[in-house]
Design a protein that fits this description.
0% of the residues lie in helices and 52% in strands. By secondary structure, the chain is mainly beta. Strand 9 and strand 10 form a beta hairpin.
Length: 112
């Protein structure tokens, strides 16, 4: 399975961040898979954001759930993160992940 993140590298404060993970080598509807978004702020550890399951069910980090939406496009084998009302504290490298498979990560900077 291969995952590739894509999206803007720079987002202004208060705007909505949108990232897409394109999956190849496996289907996002395959049973018992969980497709996650994870981020790593500068000089900090990994922070799990949320996932969408193969069933389409979602689960979000309690600390972020008021600002998060994870959705999918099964026709494109992609899943998407939307994070609203971003602040500079949302600056991080964002990864998509399933099981032991990771995307390469994409840097997102929140700045005016």
């Amino acid at each position: 399975v291969q995952l590739q993140e894509s999206g803007p590298g720079l987002v202004k404060p208060s705007q909505t961040l949108s990232l897409t993970c394109t999956v190849s080598g496996g289907s996002i509807t395959a049973n018992n898979y969980y497709w996650s978004w994870i981020r790593q702020p500068p000089e900090k550890g990994l922070e799990w954001i949320g996932y969408i399951a193969s069933s389409g069910a979602t689960y979000y980090s309690p600390s972020l759930k008021s600002r998060i939406s994870v959705s999918r496009d099964t026709s494109k084998n992609q899943f998407t993160l939307q994070l609203s009302s971003v602040t500079p504290e949302d600056t991080a490298v964002y990864y998509c992940n399933t099981m032991t498979f990771w995307g390469q990560g994409t840097q997102v900077t929140v700045s005016s």
